[in-house]
UniProtKB/TrEMBL annotation:
<dbReference type="GO" id="GO:0030003">
    <property type="term" value="P:intracellular monoatomic cation homeostasis"/>
</dbReference>
<dbReference type="InterPro" id="IPR050799">
    <property type="entry name" value="ZIP_Transporter"/>
</dbReference>
<protein>
    <submittedName>
        <fullName>Uncharacterized protein</fullName>
    </submittedName>
</protein>
<dbReference type="GO" id="GO:0005886">
    <property type="term" value="C:plasma membrane"/>
</dbReference>
<keyword id="KW-0472">Membrane</keyword>
<dbReference type="GO" id="GO:0140410">
    <property type="term" value="F:monoatomic cation:bicarbonate symporter activity"/>
</dbReference>
<dbReference type="GO" id="GO:0005385">
    <property type="term" value="F:zinc ion transmembrane transporter activity"/>
</dbReference>
<dbReference type="GO" id="GO:0071578">
    <property type="term" value="P:zinc ion import across plasma membrane"/>
</dbReference>
<feature type="transmembrane region" description="Helical">
    <location>
        <begin position="43"/>
        <end position="66"/>
    </location>
</feature>
<feature type="transmembrane region" description="Helical">
    <location>
        <begin position="78"/>
        <end position="99"/>
    </location>
</feature>
<keyword id="KW-0812">Transmembrane</keyword>
<keyword id="KW-1133">Transmembrane helix</keyword>
Length: 106
């Protein structure tokens, strides 16, 4: 029997347990319905995904184009920074994603 919160009248503590169960049932149904309705369309996912990838790629191209106009000392610092970011991101990926998955910790 599925209880609705509108079917129960709270006059004393004996009906409070039934009201809580009915509220829990309604809450679970609402959450499940919202989860189904919250998914974006496939077209929206593709458009947003391609837009973000295009933006990131164009920012890299602009960065490469601007590197031609900087001094040698500034260029050396930028390259050192980018190598450090690359090493850090690969190390972080290995520690936080690959190793726990390899040892079955997830």
């Amino acid at each position: 029997m599925v209880l609705n919160s509108t079917d129960i009248e709270v006059t004393d503590d004996s009906n409070l347990d039934l009201l809580c169960k009915a509220w829990q049932n309604n809450k679970d149904e609402i959450i499940a319905q919202n989860a189904l309705n919250a998914r974006p369309s496939a077209l929206l996912v593709w458009v947003l995904g391609l837009s973000v990838v295009t933006f990131i790629t164009l920012s890299a191209v602009v960065g490469i184009a601007l590197m031609r106009f900087v001094q040698k000392s500034t260029y050396s610092r930028f390259i050192t920074f980018f190598v450090a970011v690359g090493v850090g991101s690969l190390s972080g990926s290995a520690v936080f994603h690959l190793l726990p998955q390899a040892y079955g910790l997830l």
